[in-house]
Amino acid sequence: MRAQYLSVNGVSRVWNMILVINTGSSSIKMALLEMPSERVIAEGAAVRLGEEEASLNWNVGGDIQHVALPAAGPDVAMQQMLAILFRRMDKERITAVGHRVVHGGERFIAPTLLDDAVIAAIEELSHLAPLHNPPNLLGIRAAMRHLPAVAHIAVFDTAFHHAMPLHASLYAVPYRWYSEYGVRRYGFHGTSHHYVAQQAADRLGRSFSDCHLLTAHLGNGCSAAAIAGGISVDTTMGMTPLEGLVMGTRSGDVDPGLHDYMARQTGASLSEITAALNRQSGLLGLSGRSNDMRALLAAADEGDVRAGLAVDIFCFRLAKALAGLAVSLGQIDALIFTGGIGEHADVVRAKTVQHLSLLGLVLDAHRNSEHGRLSGGLISAVGAQVPVLVIATSEETMIARYVVDMLQRLDRTAE
Ligand SMILES: Nc1ncnc2c1ncn2[C@@H]1O[C@H](COP(=O)(O)OP(=O)(O)O)[C@@H](O)[C@H]1O
Ligand SMILES: CC(=O)OP(=O)(O)O
Ligand SMILES: [Mg+2]
Q: Which annotated residues bind ATP (predicted)?
């Protein structure tokens, strides 16, 4: 990289230390990356927020901290994480902060410098991502208080999908709902889909812009995408992160008639039904036990029938969605599994790919059980028509790349 200094608000700084903040509904992840080497200087996570078991871990240059935070919410966890980080490193070294923001609507199709107007616009989009944009904003405000003199840049989950063709992004509803109210499919997890797709192209020795890839991001939220010519051409999530696949607590696709039916049956309001689809459905709703795939796989092994059913439905629906996305690609150069479930749950990958043999997808059982660790991420059978890969995602690294790219553009404009 050419520039070593960037002038932000008239102050010239070395700009290669990027703090990335990914505030979710039940977790906060942070990473401090030195760019362009992408060396992780510090990384931390606060998990199970709101529960008795909430805790945080920080690894700041090998100094590891584990703190129990019983029942702490994202605000308390955020303060604690920043306090621990800044006790161990000089905050003056940080040049910019990259914030994951889940919903950018139609307006934010690229990384954006945060100011009061942008924050207000993100707030307005909160009703379209109620589990995500409010905690994202909490992280932005806390970090701005601690680091008022640096550039804070929002990187949107929706941005990577913004060029989806209209046939993939519009619903078959009155057109006016789109033109007047923005009712369309946006797609999410864009930084993760982009990151793993680029990695897959590298591993296959192909140019990213020539690849036709299916990516399955399976974490707490789950989505799959079809990526061709370096852009997302279709994805399973829609106007909100509720559409598509079965997720930890989210239903994914349901009949659009469900709201009316359940409102009449139970007297619940539309927003109560939406909340149940967001928070009490998916793996949790089906199993009645947990939203956590690891817990369900263990329970299914011990004979819990509903846990087994939840896993089977998760895999079947994922396979169906991947087959559907293949239509958008025309050809499949690789399928990539990522996210906590995609990277670690070999049973889920095996069950999913079993449904997809008609597309030429076949796994190697041994490679799959090793999560592709000994085969460069490859878990497909030798000689199989389509490579299947496990690739660890890093939304934080991708956000840092977008931030550096944006800083370079700001730097050029300032010259
Ligand atoms: N070893 C494992 N086996 C099965 N599932 C796992 C394993 N490790 C993590 N998971 C699952 O990954 C999911 C969380 O994924 P993650 O990507 O960390 O979530 P988030 O969306 O919060 O970033 C949980 O369902 C968890 O059970
Ligand atoms: C958009 C979304 O579902 O994000 P997450 O997986 O972090 O919940
Ligand atoms: Mg996630």
A: 29, 217-221, 292-294, 340-344
Pick from 23, 193, 344 the residue to mutate for probing ligand 1's pocket: most ligand atoms within 8 Å of its CB. Answer: 344
Share of residues in the chain with pLDDT > 90 (%): 86
Binding residues for substrate: 100
* Burial group, residue 32, by CB count within 10 angstroms (0-12, 13-18, 19+): buried
Report the number of distinct structural domains present in the chain: 2
Kindly give the distance from the C-alpha atom of residue 357 to the centroid of ligand 1, in angstroms, as a whole number.
Answer: 26
The mean per-residue pLDDT over the stretch 73-98 comes to: 91
Ligand 1 mean position to 198 CA, how many Å? Answer: 22
Which tens digits make up the pLDDT trace of 292-324?
999 999 999 999 999 999 999 999 999 999 999
157 is catalytic: yes
ipTM for the predicted complex comes to 0.98
Does residue 180 fall inside a structural domain?
A: no
- Residue from 30, 402, 343, 407 nearest 191 by CA: 402
Residue 251 in contact with residue 372, Cβ under 8 Å? no
Q: Whose CA is nearest to atom 8 of ligand 2?
A: 221
Domain that holds residue 207: 203-390
Predicted structure pTM score: 0.94
Q: Are residues 215 and 146 in the same domain?
A: no
What is d(CA 213, CA 234) in angstroms, rounded to the nearest whole number? 11
Task: Name the β-bridge partners of 390.
Answer: 337
Residues in contact with ligand 2 by the CB-under-6-Å rule are 24, 102, 132, 157, 188-189, 219-221, 241
Is 165 inside any structural domain? Answer: no
- Tell me which of 156, 184, 215 is where a domain ends: 156
**CATH number of the domain bearing residue 217:** 3.30.420.40
